[in-house]
Amino acid sequence: MSSFRACVLGASGFLGSHLVHHLLKAGCQVHAFSRDSRRNPLLTDELMSSCSIFTGDFFNTQDVERALADCDVCFHLVSTTIPKTSNDDPLRDVRENLSGSLTLLECVRRTGVRKVVYASSGGAIYGKHLMPRISENHPTDPLCSYGIVKLAVEKYLALYHELYGIDYAALRISNPFGPLQRTSAEQGVIGVFLGKILRNEPLHVWGDGSVVRDYIYVEDVARALVLAARLNTEHHVFNIGSGAGLSLNDIIDMMRSVTGRDVVVKYDQNRVFDVPYSVLDVSLAERELGWRALFPFKVGVSLAWVWLCENS
Known about the structure:
The chain is of the alpha/beta class.
């Protein structure tokens, strides 16, 4: 599929906004589904001419099927929890995100959508790691309900592929960051830290700052999602990350350099669901999708900082 008709569920979110922009620039027709109809700040009037806005409730099958109608691909970006909150109420996580995803798959089956591209998690699914770089074949032992549910959705995607021939790709995304990332959220450390720096507030770090993560610029993620929709391979699960690790202390030092501001840091005790080291092996995506991350971390942080300064 060079160009296709795509339904983006969660289109007004951070990743969804960038994905819709990327799809429209690639010449696709887009059904952008979200709970509200706020304007995507990345879209020009010209791009909006190829975008149909659908507002509704992800848990209402009529709303979802209306958005899926006549689409080739469904991008499933909806999640109502994050790793921290999922353990507070696992029943809610299962009820909303697992049952909701199963209901979506039934909608996909009824409407004839050919492929589902799912935003899974490259951090929460694997749990404690045995290897320095985590491949898709690494054991999956999530430490939080969020990761368990993400993994379960992947398994149901595989089941519906087997039963009904619905193609799918599950992208295990590391830690995306960039313009439009919320600065007041509980997840997304780059956006949160930059927001605090802009407001001259201290940064709060769980642990001693040595925790290492894989961070990837949001435009690289959007490009991976589109490639996964277009290409058919025998593989269905892909790690999407930079393939390199940075500690929180490394990030803070780089933010001092990018922003030119002094940064006060307050350290607290570790959280039980934080694994000490998480860096993805992305060689499968490079080989099968022809994809690799193009934005160096410092460049991405600089772009995010400029956006934040200009739009605050």
